[in-house]
Amino acid sequence: MDRRQYTDRVLTSLRRVTAKEREAIRQELDGHMEDHMDALRELGYDEALAEERTIAAMGDPEEVGRELNRQYPSRWLVVKWGAQGAAVLLMLFLLSGWWDVLDNLVCYARARLWPGTFANVEWLARETGQGEVDVIEKTEQRAELGTMTVRVWQVGLDQASERGGTAYVAFSCWDEEPWAEPPGYIEVYNDADGAGAVQSMGGSWGRAYAVPAAYGDTLRVCWYDELDHQYETLLTVELPWEESP
Amino acid sequence: MAKKQTMDHAQLLVLSLLAGEDMYGYQMIVELSRRSDHTFEMKEGTLYPVLHGLEREGLVEAYQQEAPTGRVRKYYHLTRRGTAALKEEAQAWQTYSGAVNAVLRACPALGLA
């Protein structure tokens, strides 16, 4: 057995080390044997005998390997491999466009379960300096737009009288197809006079609008069809007017 | 009651060698043999599991240094934590060996008293 074979036999027992650690151990053991052989050469030993005595002094390579192996707990290697695997998967995920799908799935969940996280009447009133809104109600009014569902989930009225006030509406939408694009332009108008929203906030999957309104008015939620260049009415939204102003 | 020993003898001896200066593996073997008057002549390969275990526990740290001959060696350095562990273990060892000696001295058959 020569030096190389000795280190090979030690390394055979090492199952929990990385390639870098394995190489470092090889270098260290080999360096040690080289030092020992140098000392023996200085004492007049020839090369073969110096190597033989050095290897004998090192001890059983399997035992050294087993003892070394115990110093490298497997959990670190598992964590390392796990982290590397996760990094590769993340890269593949980002590169393959699945990020958009994941984003859409998150928006889908928000639109169905927590529509207020996109925008809501309270936020819009606060943003526009209106402060407290007189009446805010949950509602459930839906329209289908292909595979997409548009849901008006909140309405509000402020300073509503016959002279007019402000009506609020918040909607969210989702698509059954996880890779679908957002619905594009959705607008809200006063059904009575066609007045558009004066304020709005939110994103493509959920918005809130403020529209001038007079007592008894209803609102229209429209989708702008970019191909046909025309608006399609999705919903007529009933507002929470009291019986008499 | 004195603290119990938690280290094996090889670990304690290695830490004590490094208390004086940083050393590489073969140097430790030679020095250990010299200081113990050739009593401790361990199988040299078994030094490395001890060193790597101490390194993993943070009691020693390693660095590479090139010798004048051009050979790059891995030196071991006793950390602050290693110094504290050495003091504690040396104390425990002295207590233990003192107790063993006391028992042996009291043994009439040995004639050590």
Automatic annotation (TrEMBL), chain A:
Pfam families: HAAS (PF22564)
Transmembrane region(s): 76-99
Listed InterPro entries: Perm_prefix_1 (IPR047928)
Taxonomic superkingdom: Bacteria
Keywords: Membrane, Transmembrane, Transmembrane helix
Protein name: DUF1707 domain-containing protein
Phylogenetic placement of the source organism: Bacteria, Bacillati, Bacillota, Clostridia, Eubacteriales
Automatic annotation (TrEMBL), chain B:
All residue ranges annotated as the Transcription regulator PadR N-terminal domain in the record: 14-88
InterPro entries: Metal_resp_DNA-bind_regulator (IPR052509), Tscrpt_reg_PadR_N (IPR005149), WH-like_DNA-bd_sf (IPR036388), WH_DNA-bd_sf (IPR036390)
SUPFAM superfamilies, A to Z: Winged helix' DNA-binding domain
Name of the molecule in the record: PadR family transcriptional regulator
Organism this protein belongs to: Oscillibacter valericigenes
